[in-house]
Fold each of these.
Amino acid sequence: MSGHPKRRASELAVGQTHEALLVEDLSRTQIAMYAGASGDFNPIHHDEPFARSAGYPSVFAHGMLSMGLAGRLLTDWLGDGVLREFGVRFVRQVWPGDTLRGRAIVTAVGADGRVALEVAASNQRGEPVIAGEAVALLPA
Amino acid sequence: MAEFEFPVDRSAILAFAAALGETNPIYWDEAHAAKTPLGAVIAPPTFAVASAHWNPHHALRGIRRIPAAAPGREARPSESAGDGASLLRVLHGEQRFVYHQPIRAGMRLRVSTRAGKSWEKQGKRGGKLRFSETITEYRDEAGELVVTATSVGVVTEKAVEA
């Protein structure tokens, strides 16, 4: 399994950072699209009266939508089918109207082409929404 | 806990990629994919969760009645989910994937889920937090692992605060 890498491990150095805009002004439509595509129909993500009755100011996005957006940052930068591991912790809710920026930082580069990364996303107030790690296998 | 088939089709991958705002043709364009070493349309890294559509134990299925819910498990979002805790007290705390090979359009995956570790922690705002892992293995028709997914659910003692 070699995937379709966009770069070599030797082009990357520990501490190197890649940043990208993940989503600008997140829409309720996108959250609804994610519900339909993922099969997660928890009403807290699409039913505004339900969300308000539960004490939230509005619906909020699935954590997995934020993770999916961060996955896009990794695949756009490193290539397709090159990830070996990807994990995140959901730190804070993401609301309609939020703008998310993502960041990946290289934490280790192996001689075998394994590249370890720290992955995070934050909202327009600079608050972290997800934090995690990934490992990609690239040509050495 | 559950075992079911997850047939992966290109339309499902396209809808998932579209919801992420993707523009990468590897997620729908067969002619493009054929020119890459992958050779076929593949799914985005978090796509495995869309197996929920085929999981008879999935509790957050909206009005879906197919496939039929497994007996003894609740499948109405307005009622309790999972182990009886209110929907509002269950949070998705963490998600991890280990990739053994890419998920390709046309694969017929065999999905099996089992309970992993569980532990408790005292929450910052008071109340106990109960963590439990669900481990999901996706295998191809030859029985080879494709993806291993670990989801960590958090059940709060008190209602979740915004």
Note: Residues 2-156 of chain B form a domain with the Thiol Ester Dehydrase; Chain A fold (CATH 3.10.129.10).
Amino acid sequence: MDIAPPSTTKTPMILLALGFALLVIGSYLGLFVAPAEQYMGQVQRIMYVHVPTVWSWMLCVCFTFIAAVIFLFRNDLKWDARLEAGLEVGTLLCAMLCCQGAIWAKPTWGVWWDWDPRLTSVAVLLFAFLGIIALRQFVDDPPRRAVWSAVATIIASADLPIVYFSVKWWNSLHQTQSSPSTVSSAFHLPLRINAFGVFFVMVAFVMLRSRLATRKLREELV
Amino acid sequence: MLTAALRKELLLQWRSRSQMMAVFVFGATSLLLFSFAIGPNAAALRTFSAGFLWLGLLLSSTLTLAESFHAEMENRALEGLLLLPSNPRSLYYGKAIANWLQLTLLGIALVPVMVVLYDAGTTQLLTLLVVILLGTAGLSAPGTLYAAMTAQVRAKQTLLPLLLFPLIVPALLASVKATSLAILGDPMHDLRNWLTLLGAFDLIYWSLCGLLYPKVIEE
């Protein structure tokens, strides 16, 4: 197996700068311009980073799953580099959204954690991804490592809907998903700007990480 | 082909039955330890007995599953098996069914220990058997696949639980719920729902893992 050299890092760097700029603008609007929410008060402002993080995380998990499937069909190590990038960026976003959620939940629900279907599915996926990243550290042969992590990613992704529905049969107290249509128009703009900000940062991270993974793979294959 | 693979696995297990005995003692010991974690509170122990049973079974399963590829790893026997004019899928299903039977036996053997230690008697033995069959099927399908991977790497004892535990959360949850309903009574008739969930989990993973297994062991 061979792998093509990575392309330049110009595009991801531009995306990264754009993403951070949008995050600064969106967070400024969210923190200082948008009004405080009537019932939750200032705590609610964490929504401007939490909800965009969740959206980008979901896209990142979908990307990782697709990369795993494409790798198994094509056997092209380029997709293994992308899978590795998706796994790590997905884990980072997942850890971030768990922390943000806990910070929001303590003053709002009175607890750091709750066994709600969405929270539990996120936690299960976080641990599943950590397990796959650990597996990658212990396999030295690149093609074999690629196949195994693709297989493990597919198996873990298939688990997600089952976890969600199994936990749903317990009681749930998580809010319904926020989207621009469920929040008042005063909250729209910072939410949208931050959504694009986090999205661009996520895409830039995935691109940079997969270029790095490609470089490492090329070195291992020589 | 499948019957030949299954026969090989069962023969291997029969010849290493002393190991099976050791795993049972390990499971029984962990059941004993759980009661010390809770304290001598008979009511609480009875309430949590189903959870303890499945945790004991889960911990023991990592031992049997990790061992199940032991013979294949010696003298590159796996490569020899793959050279046979056989389907790698039947190798997988042979091993998965053998692991399933072994875990079921282990589960059945642990039930009396649970009943004695936690005073968790039940008359619904048939229900309990169905739950154990479905639950251990959920453990063995992904467990066998992951064991095939982790048997070939360093640190296999750590990696197998790391990969398996997050995955079997729904199966564990449903098995514990169903067992608990069988022991403590089922006023809302929820048992059927949990069994359906377990059955769906088994169906998905027995087909998905069988589909992906040839990829895992091919060179």
Note: The helical segments of chain A are 10-33, 47-74, 77-109, 117-138, 142-168, 188-221.
